[in-house]
Sequence to fold (335 residues):
Amino acid sequence: MPPTWLLASLSLAVAFALALVWRAWAIRRGVLDAPDDRRLHDTPTPRGGGIGIALVLLVAAAWLGDGRGWFVAGLVLCGGAGLIDDIRPLPPLAKGLLQALGAACLAAGFPLLPELWGVALGHLLAWVLVLVLVNFWNFMDGSNGLATSQAMLAALGLAALVPAAASVTWLAVALAAACLGFLPLNFPRARLFLGDVGSHVLGYALAALLLMAATPAGPRAWLLVLPVSAMVLDAGLTLLSRTRRRQVVWRAHREHLYQRAVAHGWSHAGICALYAGWSLAAIALALWLARQDPAWSLPGSVAGLVFGIIAYSLLGRAWPRPPATGSAPHGIPKA
Fold:
């Protein structure tokens, strides 16, 4: 296994270089996100730049050890679904099927805590986890730098919680460095979007890290939810709110907390900083709890999530949701 510093340097450089190449190709081919009333940007912008992150992870997977074949197969399916949709719109059913197959691959190689739930239920829970994170990161990819910076912080936080798990550290470093390589093209001004290929790959990779870290974390596995809590709570609570109000949940909207903040005058940089602060606080809490008696892991994690729910509610009152949008299929708002 190459040294970590070399992995980080190459991942950063390759992701940045491939993003530049893809941007030029996408502009020539017209692979662009056009502004509309559900998006947060006002100029046509090339999409699909997350393909560089995907390719970095495909190469890094060679050193993942057991289960790497399942990881690669799932990454190709989930990332491929996003890439096809970026280049030429994919029917929702076909896209969902590819996501489900990709999630099944990762779940086959990395069941969630089979020693706790049993093998069969561990596979099923892992499959659900992958689908949730792939789609939640896709829903939340709508403000400059947000999805990428959150994936970077979450990856590093997960690695810090299980420092003895070499495969988790390896994948986390590759993911975080690749995100850092992409960010200059997406933040503070977006010259390139991740696209669905990028958001799918980020959610998929984070699901892989959670599954790989869960067993080494042992009774402290509950802490692993905290590094991804900012994105999961915003996406999940918004989805629950729309379901409660009988909205069509897969249709485009601007009701996520970060979208409402922008509508009330917040800058993309301010949003990115707010969510980064949330995630850093959650990671700090997780690391502190990891040094305490394992019995505190579950109640401490629940307390952190409850605090996040309260913060979401208070900020939601400060940033009321906009009037309901129309009925076009869910196209993730881009910044």
User: Anything to note?
Assistant: The two ends are 38 Å apart (CA to CA). Strands lie at 32-33, 45-46.
